[in-house]
């Protein structure tokens, strides 16, 4: 008999997929248009997709974002995702391992990712509020190459059994200082603002995933889990809480950290747009999960290989041969997003 926490992991998976099917996310990056140029002076064959970072030295600018582990069923998904990551050469994050700190039966559902992909780039995952010692335990559990610490206050607020104490700065700082691998501080889909990014930088954060709204929505998912999605108990007024992925990337314009993005990414063009707005790498969760659950691992491999083949073409189309060229690509924002940027006094040089 699996624990209540393990059951929660199964529910997240099932509900995320059910919501994806019911309301397929519309990427907030649709609010950004890249300017077409007829003379880009590029060659698709010469495009280099590699991330220009010594610690996160990935071959591709997108990766499989944190989702599963903790139950038998989600362990199977982790194994499939890790096999996909191995075949396609993508980095991959496992889902939150906090369950495995208390429930040792959950450990194999994470270890399986390392077994399936012994030499791949694997990212461990833990919630904010855990100690540096616990963070190191989850890193060691899967021989991780990096650690994600997720911040999810809005999710916890909606979750009936969620945390209610959000004093996280001190423990995040300790984790950053002591971790044996690079630490990525990551939002789970409610986005970040300038102030949060600055606070994290002051703690020494070098990798920040602004994880914005417009993809998987944990306010909705937790409401479904609570069975409170009735007019009486629902948190429906929080369903559009937070900054979108596009807004969050604008918020991060003046950051000196290695900015990453997640939330609603569903095409290679979304990856490129996020990069133009300053993301060095882009995580994909719900879209890949849907592909895997609907069509199986072989299909997900084909989807990822298609993205990998299309990205050099898109780089060449916008006049870029490598990642660093992308930030020079001109773009325009739709009126809603440009209004947001203006009201927030955001430094968007090409805006
Ligand atoms: C089923 C599911 C489970 C998730 N579990 C975690 C988790 O344990 N830890 C975490 O940091 N993010 C978790 N996420 C959030 C994703 O990593 C990602 O930040 C979010 O879903 C937004 O990206 P998307 O729109 O591509 O899905 C989960 C997402 C899904 C779909």
Automatic annotation (TrEMBL):
Enzyme Commission numbers on file: 5.3.3.2
Chain residues that bind FMN: 66-68, 96, 125, 186, 216, 285-286
GO cellular component: cytoplasm
Keywords attached to this entry: Cytoplasm, Flavoprotein, FMN, Isomerase, Isoprene biosynthesis, Magnesium, Metal-binding, NADP
Residues involved in substrate binding: 8-9, 155
Family to which the UniProt record says this protein belongs: Belongs to the IPP isomerase type 2 family.
Intracellular or extracellular location(s): Cytoplasm
GO molecular function, one term: isopentenyl-diphosphate delta-isomerase activity
Binding locations of Mg(2+): 156
Assembly and oligomerization: Homooctamer. Dimer of tetramers.
Full protein name: Isopentenyl-diphosphate delta-isomerase
Residue ranges of domain FMN-dependent dehydrogenase in the record: 153-327
Gene3D superfamilies for the chain: Aldolase class I
HAMAP family named among the record's database cross-references: Idi_2
GO BP terms in the entry: isoprenoid biosynthetic process
Presence of the UniProt keyword Metal-binding in the record: yes
The keyword tRNA processing belongs to this UniProt entry's keyword annotation: no
Function (record text): Involved in the biosynthesis of isoprenoids. Catalyzes the 1,3-allylic rearrangement of the homoallylic substrate isopentenyl (IPP) to its allylic isomer, dimethylallyl diphosphate (DMAPP).
Swiss-Prot/TrEMBL cofactor(s): FMN; Mg(2+); NADPH
Recorded catalytic activity of this chain's protein: isopentenyl diphosphate = dimethylallyl diphosphate
